[in-house]
């Protein structure tokens, strides 16, 4: 199944299991979402469980926090991660802090789903990767899947989690894995092993990375779309890289990171978000703090440039396999 | 555009200014105050479009002689009235003591609600104990109307060892799940859409509890106000949206909030929400309007917006000095009087009260506040402690402490 | 609260649904359409409170026979009328060509405004060329009404070497300082408060230029809408706030935006802003209402809110398929007709137009669009280029490129 | 003069020099701001140049962007940095990107002033340091002064800058320098050399750090309040630290950082903001990238904890001199 179908299945499972789960957002109801992630859910679970909202991301979050405080588990869709900024106050000042400020009496177990990342000619307002804004916020968890299997298991965990979870969905992976070669034919998920998705309920724990390739030469830390791009880069550069798919950014799986970098002595971090202050900075700082004496080369960051995502130069912007391969070669030279 | 470009006159910016500033006499004579009892009372299922006049009128029940008049008289029994009086007096005494404690350095900050006591107290009494309240920092009266222990409130103000919020919040940012009193946010406005979400959740679950929210006229400019009204209107949420127009937002008057050319109740009309404008210093009017709105909500008729027309008699907070931006002692001239005086006068007019009983009640209230104050202070004050363990600083960020917080906690040595 | 807790009935959530969904016949028969010419026309200095009826009425000038009737008739000369017709036809032909180009892979995306042409064209013509416009993505007609070169617009759509926006923006997110057309944002609503800020700046500087902004009925739910109305009301900003109610926001109907129980024009009343509801498919009504609002603004009388009542006849964008959520071909049944047909009928009724001249004009327009299209394509298309230099990707992030971008540019090898 | 007076002077100078400068925000007009930074400016420059706004940070930013697009240079005050989140969309999607998306035709030279940081018992909503959210945004500059002299010169530069500038003011320094010892008497600015502030116009260039203490043992990177705390820590720990006051976070003065760390071989980064994803992460990543082969010890970050700022435990939260001194000793041991 595709990642879209896997996400749909996760919500379906959770809507079925618990009357407290509701799904809300712009166009998620009758229509089933502009990316079809909620297709059929309103018909199946009813209009007061799955419904369209007015176009106001701040409003959606405020409503979701109130619903969560009541005891529901709202799954709120932001149509694009680029449109999440109006919701920042309700996310940062409210959802993230409610448990703390109420001494644990009120909580906000909201799951915020948002398609993120580029590669669909969406220009600067349909391509952004704003995860670093939220990974800086104490009280929020941040999750980014890279396969249909993970997407379902992680989304179920996010909905079941008692804390607010930012769930960013790599839209370039919705309908097929993507190695970063935009000029090669699109491969469907069907050919990928992680598109085998079990029926019903299963959970992938938050906070645990997956080793998607074992290796000894260098550690690549990646998440979302970049996991597939990193795999392609390692293959193409013929570097025996160990690739960690972080899956959860906060809390990050420091043990997995530490173990791998201590083994390889080298580290390349990749993300699509702009570089300065991106989550790669935190990863670099952590690796440096935890593995200083094991590092044989400077940690490299391969990221989106520090510019908005340009429509026509999408592929010049995207940190593709060639740029990652270059970084791999650089760290291997040290 | 078809003719040559015409010569246009220069534009200029209008910046609202309050009628008086420090140095001049306060003058409320231009304020239009309709007599008590004149506003009509529509049925609770009246469509919004058929009651737009009430967003510009003023629901008043208590007249200048202390008689309850007109269709909005809620006809409350003596016990309820005295309970209201006691609660309002308790709020005022509590405020006095806490403000004094702040001046004495026992805590960092305090906010009074002087002149606005009728709002929280009457509204707290007019809804069910199980309904959920989303207040701002000026509705301490809700907790008191719900008989929440003063000691618990004071412990919050002192951030002491007895503070259920573990010293995390600034004073007056109370929270009590048990009291149906939502955690007050420092960020203005956010509770307004949350209340609508809570009410929608209650409706989704087929529950019967409704929600009520409060916002200041100043904070209505925040987006959350708009989002709350939009969602409440679209989904007919069972919520009472209260808007306390006390005429000031720190140093800026209601004209800066958009109250120069219309009422704040009128905001609701644009969303098709029935909207009332109510004398906020009139215990009976506030009670009646709230009951009316609650009935609507319970009958699945949706939200009501209530503008509570009042005046912030005291400073914004202990950090504020209103003499810097408005004539001194402005509150004492408020033409709609003092809510406590007016309810006392009503009780006397009813023949069920006397100055002697009033004094007795005042003594009782003072005593209760003093006893609570001593007990709370024995559990600690901000200047001296004791506090909860510093270790609690790392708790409740998440349900379970993740590795990085665990590590930081160890680094902090707590 | 004084009695034992009463037993309350269960609540339920109301979720608005459009009257028809795919599979059923479209039916607009319940839509209340007042006859043309019946809405009154107050003086431009009429206080908002004295014209609240116009927020619920519908300003219409063209009747079913194509005659201009009533007090709102702007009495335009033949040249202006024909210019308007030509501009609307150009918009439609332009839309057709660009949509086709998208289908052919020459660009990634396109958005038509079919059925809404009168709005941008008449409004663009009713304000001064020097006034500043803050549009959404569906007011391409403004540029065309201002005779902005089609080639320039097309180059933007193709992101090609001739694109002044250097290939940075998605198609249709035009920007032209020279045309007084503000850079369109992908984030809904943001331009609305910006327009008010621009208008306030103009007033601060004693300038005479006013601003106009557009927003869709769906996007009115964003906070920016509220902020715009609040600031415009408080500072009496010289701005025309246009609200295009085309009944749909991608897949959700106007009821989800809060239009089920009131009009969108009514939103303005709550802020004390004079608000008009206008037949958006009636070129003359749109022109007249806009002129009226512009006059108000120029006379320092402040903002006007205009709801343009229309229907999105086409898909939301090339990424959308409306057959998934509404009956097919819904736009063809819109009771207020097609704006181009209605203006043509009016010209014929005036005796200054004929089917022959109409056909001639259609040919001229088609030819102009084709010529422009060829020229634009010769400067490049998204699938094949050429583009501006990739180096431009690093420019304009800041006025001067800082070290880290300079370094990244070198890394990118451009 | 105090920092409050210096900021006031900067705005006064700019209001006087250019009719395009306007000052707006909550309570900034007649009253002169809750911290008195705009005291007297309305009286002097008129009500349409310095005025109170409705309470809506998003509205203020939208208005300011529109004014800037017209050609004005608005100086918008956010009453507390903690209340900036509702303005995120207008800041991130609009102010930061306007020049880029319009091909350079429209610009948004807005200066956003906001008191930030803790130390005044403000609890979680009057103490935050949200700079990292904005340093991640391409198109924004971020400036934080540490003395009255710098405050005036930097604010003038910010207002004159043609790009939007986030100007965070350490509120704990408004009325006196602060070494982090909350139990010692408050020292007034008058005794500090940098409280000598010239009359009239002068500018301190954005993007240039200041070396506030030369040393050879270790480099401390700090800004705002923490500059004074770092100085105290170095003194108390008797470590010959070189202390850089970054002053501008974006664009950061990489040359100064690189030169210092190459010299000392050690680096401690301090900020008051929460740790994960803070600007310290970016600094750590940069230092590691630029000075890898010169580093003799792991880079340390001394920061606020990853929790909201707690009212009663303010001083347990604050990264005071003792914590910095500890870090200094740790890096010196390597
Ligand atoms: C988002 C946000 N912006 C600004 C503030 C600072 N602030 C606290 S109270 C206040 C005035 C509020 O006035 P109003 O809403 O009328 O309530 P009142 O104090 O009169 O009860 C302001 C500006 C804040 N707490 N939150
Ligand atoms: C902040 C934000 N949220 C969501 C979107 C996605 N989106 C683009 S257009 C649209 C519908 C807008 O509807 P409306 O305002 O009625 O304008 P119309 O398309 O009908 O002209 C949506 C939800 C967006 N662009 N920006
Ligand atoms: Mg107020
Ligand atoms: Mg629409």
Automatic annotation (TrEMBL), chains A, D:
- Every copy of the Transketolase-like pyrimidine-binding domain together lies at 1-176
- Keyword flag Oxidoreductase: yes
Q: Gene3D superfamilies from the xrefs?
A: 3.40.50.920, 3.40.50.970
GO molecular function list: branched-chain 2-oxo acid dehydrogenase activity
Q: Name one GO biological process term.
A: branched-chain amino acid catabolic process
Pfam families attached here? Transket_pyr, Transketolase_C
First and last residue of the signal peptide: none
For activity, the cofactor(s) needed are:
thiamine diphosphate
Enzyme Commission (EC) number: 1.2.4.4
Key words, A-Z: Oxidoreductase
Q: SMART domains in the record, alphabetically?
A: Transket_pyr (SM00861)
The family database entries (SUPFAM superfamilies) matched by this protein are listed as: Thiamin diphosphate-binding fold (THDP-binding), TK C-terminal domain-like
Coiled-coil ranges (or none)? none
Spell out the protein name for this chain: 3-methyl-2-oxobutanoate dehydrogenase (2-methylpropanoyl-transferring)
From TrEMBL, chains B, C:
In Swiss-Prot or TrEMBL terms, this protein is called 2-oxoisovalerate dehydrogenase subunit alpha
Kindly state which keywords UniProt assigns to this record, in alphabetical order.
Oxidoreductase, Thiamine pyrophosphate
CDD domains cross-referenced by the UniProt entry: TPP_E1_PDC_ADC_BCADC
Query: Per the database record, which ranges form the Dehydrogenase E1 component domain?
Result: 86-380
Organism encoding this protein: Azospirillum lipoferum
Q: Where are the annotated segments for Disordered? A: 1-26
Keyword Membrane in annotation? no
Q: Which residues form a coiled coil?
A: none
């Amino acid at each position: 199944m595709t990642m879209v179908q896997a996400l749909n299945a996760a919500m379906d499972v959770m809507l079925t299991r618990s009357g407290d789960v509701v799904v809300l957002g712009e166009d998620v109801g009758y229509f089933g979402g502009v990316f079809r992630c909620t297709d059929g859910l309103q018909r199946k679970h009813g209009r007061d469980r799955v419904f369209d909202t007015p176009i106001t991301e701040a409003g959606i979050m405020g409503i979701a926090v109130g619903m969560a405080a009541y005891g529901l588990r709202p799954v709120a869709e932001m149509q694009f991660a680029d449109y999440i900024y109006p919701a920042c106050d309700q996310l940062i000042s409210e959802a993230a802090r409610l448990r703390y400020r109420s001494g644990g009496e009120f909580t906000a177990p909201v799951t915020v789903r948002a398609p993120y990342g580029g590669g669909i000619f969406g220009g600067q307002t349909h391509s952004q990767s704003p995860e670093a804004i939220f990974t800086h916020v104490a009280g929020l968890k941040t999750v980014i899947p890279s396969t249909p299997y993970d997407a379902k298991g992680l989304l179920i965990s996010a909905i079941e989690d008692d804390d607010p979870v930012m769930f960013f969905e790599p839209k370039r992976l919705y309908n097929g894995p993507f190695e970063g070669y935009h000029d090669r034919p699109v491969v469907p998920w069907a050919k990928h092993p992680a598109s085998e998705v079990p029926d019903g309920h299963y959970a992938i724990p938050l906070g645990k990375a997956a080793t998607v390739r074992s290796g000894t030469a260098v550690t690549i830390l990646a998440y979302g779309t970049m996991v597939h791009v990193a795999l392609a880069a390692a293959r193409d550069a013929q570097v025996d890289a160990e690739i960690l798919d972080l899956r959860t950014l906060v809390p990050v799986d420091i043990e997995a990171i530490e173990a791998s970098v201590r083994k390889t002595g080298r580290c390349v971090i990749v993300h699509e978000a702009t570089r300065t202050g991106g989550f790669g900075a935190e990863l670099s700082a952590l690796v440096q703090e935890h593995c200083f004496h094991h590092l044989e080369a400077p940690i490299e960051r391969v990221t989106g440039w520090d510019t908005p995502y340009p429509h026509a130069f999408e592929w010049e912007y995207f940190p593709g396999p060639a740029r990652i391969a270059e970084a791999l070669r650089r760290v291997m030279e040290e | 555009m078809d003719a040559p470009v015409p010569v246009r006159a220069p534009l200029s910016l209008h910046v609202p200014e309050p009628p008086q500033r420090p140095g001049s006499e306060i003058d409320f004579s231009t304020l239009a105050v309709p007599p008590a009892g004149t506003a009509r009372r529509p049925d609770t299922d009246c469509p919004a479009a058929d009651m737009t006049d009430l967003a510009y009128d003023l629901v008043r029940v208590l007249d200048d002689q202390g008689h309850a008049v007109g269709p909005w008289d809620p006809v409350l029994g003596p016990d309820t009235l005295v309970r209201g009086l006691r609660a309002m007096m308790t709020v005022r005494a509590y405020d006095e003591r806490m403000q004094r404690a702040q001046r004495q350095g026992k805590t960092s900050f305090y906010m009074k609600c002087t002149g606005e006591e009728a709002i929280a107290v009457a509204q707290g009494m007019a809804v069910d104990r199980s309904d959920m309240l989303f207040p701002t920092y000026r509705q301490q009266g809700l907790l008191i109307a719900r008989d929440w222990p003063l000691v618990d409130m004071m412990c919050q103000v002192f951030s002491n060892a007895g503070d259920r919020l573990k010293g995390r919040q600034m004073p007056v940012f109370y929270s009590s799940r048990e009291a149906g009193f939502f955690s007050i946010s420092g960020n203005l406005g956010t509770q307004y859409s949350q209340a609508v979400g809570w009410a929608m959740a209650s409706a989704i679950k087929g529950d019967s509890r409704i929600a009520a929210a409060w916002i200041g006229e100043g904070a209505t400019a925040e987006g959350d106000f708009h989002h709350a009204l939009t969602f409440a209107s679209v989904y007919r949420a069972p919520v009472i949206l209260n808007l306390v127009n006390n005429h000031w937002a720190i140093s800026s008057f209601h004209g800066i909030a958009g109250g120069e050319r219309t009422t704040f109740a009128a905001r609701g009309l644009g969303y098709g929400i029935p909207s009332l404008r109510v004398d906020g210093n009139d215990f009976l009017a506030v009670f009646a309007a709230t009951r009316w709105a609650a009935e609507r909500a319970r009958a699945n008729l949706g939200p009501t917006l209530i503008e509570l027309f009042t005046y912030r008699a005291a400073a914004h907070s202990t950090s504020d000095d209103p003499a810097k931006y408005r004539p001194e002692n402005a509150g004492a001239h408020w033409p709609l009087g003092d809510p406590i005086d007016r309810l006392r006068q009503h009780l006397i007019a009813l023949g069920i009260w006397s100055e002697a009983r009033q004094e007795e009640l005042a003594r009782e209230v003072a005593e209760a506040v003093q006893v609570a104050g001593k007990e709370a202070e024995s559990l600690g004050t901000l200047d001296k402690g004791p506090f909860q363990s510093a270790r609690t600083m790392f708790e409740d960020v998440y349900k379970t402490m993740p590795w990085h917080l665990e590590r930081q906690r160890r680094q902090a040595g707590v």
